[in-house]
Amino acid sequence: MTFFESILLGLVQGLTEFLPVSSSGHLVIIQKLLNVGEQIEFDVFLHFATLIAVLIFFRNDILEILKGILGKSEAGLKTLIGIIIGSVPTAIIGLLFSGFFEEKFSQPKIVVWMLIVTGLILWFSSKFAKSEIFNKTHSTTKISDFLLVGIFQGIAIMPGISRAGITISCALLLGFNRAWAFKYSMLLSIPAILGAGLLELKNFSVNANIISGGIIAMLSGILALYILSKIVIGKKFHIFSYYLWTVGIIGLIFL
User: Fold this and answer.
1) pLDDT lower than 70: segments of the chain
2) Residue 225, exposed/middle/buried by CB under 10 A (0-12, 13-18, 19+)?
3) Which residue range(s) make up the domain with 249?
C-alpha cells in the first residue's frame, strides 16, 4: 500500500465512520478499486484513530461520565448506564455472527445493496421520526430503548449498513430528541469501535504509511462529527439517502 493510498483510505474511514454512509462499505469498495486487498493492520489502526476522534469531540461528555462514576454527576451516570445497556446486544451479535459478517467483506455486490438499504433506513427515519413528539433525553430514555438501539448497532456489523445511520435512525424513531440521538449514537460507538479493534489486534505493527493514514482518519473524523451534529439537529438527515442510493447503483453497475 502506497502513501497516497493510505491517505485516501484514512480520509474515507474518518469521514464515513461517523457520517451515516458506512465506513466498512466504502473501504470495501475503495480497496476493490485500488486493488490493495484487505489491510487488517491498517484497518485496526484506523479504528483506533477514529476512536480518538470521538474522545476529543465528546471530551466534555466523557468528563461528565467520569464524574458520574465518582458519584458527582447523575447525568453522567445515566449516560454511562445507557452505553453499557446498549453495548450488550451489540457484543452478543458480534460474537455470535462475526464469521457470517466477515464473509460479506469479500462480496462487494452485497455491500452495495446494503448501502441502498441504509439509504432507505435514513429516509424512513427522517420521514417518520418521533423525536418532535416524545423528545426523550438521557433522563427519560427507557432501558428497552437503549437495548433496541444496541441491537441495531449489532446489525451494523454487516458491511454497507452504517452504524451511525442505523443507530441515529432507531433513536429518532423511538422519540430521542435530535441532539440526544446524535450524542448517544456516537458515545455508544466507543465500546463498539474499541471492541472491533481489539478483536483484530493480532501480530499488530505500524509503519509510516499506517500512521499517516491514521492521523488523517482522526482529523477527518472530528470534521465528520461536527458536520453530522449540524445535519441531525437541523433535520436534514435524509440528504445522505440520495448519496447512498447513487453510490449503491453505481456499485451494482461497475463492481
Assistant:
1) 37-40, 199-205
2) buried
3) 3-254
pTM of the full structure: 0.91
Counting every residue written for the chain, the total comes to: 255
- pLDDT tens digit sequence for 115-154: 999 999 999 998 899 877 889 999 999 999 999 999 999 9
CB 154 within 8 A of CB 195: no
The 3 state secondary structure assigned to the chain is CCHHHHHHHHHHHHHHHHCCCCHHHHHHHHHHHHCCCCCHHHHHHHHHHHHHHHHHHCHHHHHHHHHHHCCCCHHHHHHHHHHHHHHHHHHHHHHHHHHHHHHHCCCHHHHHHHHHHHHHHHHHHHHHCCHHHHCECCCCCCHHHHHHHHHHHHHCCCCCCCHHHHHHHHHHHCCECHHHHHHHHHHHHHHHHHHHHHHCCCCCCCCHHHHHHHHHHHHHHHHHHHHHHHHHHCCCCCHHHHHHHHHHHHHHHHC
Q: How many domains does the chain have?
A: 1
